[in-house]
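At this stage, I wrote out one protein, both as residues and as discrete backbone shape codes, and that material follows here.
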Amino acid sequence: MDGGSGDGVSVIIPAYRAQGTIARAVSSLLAQSFPHWEAVVVSDDGADYRTLLAAAGIADSRLTFTGTGRVGSGAPAARNAGLRCARLPLIAPLDADDRFEPDRLARLALLAAAQGAAADNVAVVRDGDGSPLSTLFPPGAGTATLDAAGFLDTSVPMFFVVRRDLVPGWEEGVDFCDDVVFNVQVLDRLGRLPLVLEPLYEYRQREGSITCSADSGARADLCYRHVLERLAGDGLRIADAALRRRFATALDAKRALNAAYMAAQAAGRCVNFQEFLALRENSLPG
């Protein structure tokens, strides 16, 4: 399926109550300039997403469908179910309410195949009206380098494209910041990876999503505390002790930032975390 390129990508899409958004996510794959991909759509709510997409006029031989056999088992379990079905040398997660820009896989696949993994800038977009809110890094041309220190300073989800033999799987006991843990585990294996400065992943801020829910701050704090306990216990499969310590320090800082967000949310100054970050950035001097 990878046409002999050796860099075909299995895109894993966990789908939970994704009926209103999954057609957009899959359409962004159909629009890719890089053809050597498959998508594994993982139903985590018992829905028949093959039929749903077909009703929207979307059918492609590169689409594969599976399920967790449960309802609401969580994104990590769904991604792991998709990983078990994936057949290509590179793995790329895509949330069912997000989308790829058309050149994303073309830009990242060769970098990931050569260097083990690759990342890109992220555009944060309000889902209701499609308006841009922010980008994770200042947009630019070319490629920089991302290491653990740079990654741990971020506050927007990142979705690496990773060579399959370096994929650690997703921690099913971590149900809120599983993407952060996954990325730190990848960086533990690689040290650093190329970062495309153009925002090619569109992260949608959607009302009703877990990260926009009224209890998102409390859920985030619970997750951070759980990850800190794991780091102090089994180490979360992170071999580098210095990285474990750095991760724990970063989580303490994230907990403090999250506490400030919950206070701002309670005071009615913001609705979600990304809005809080924009408010905070605009209030900084200079």
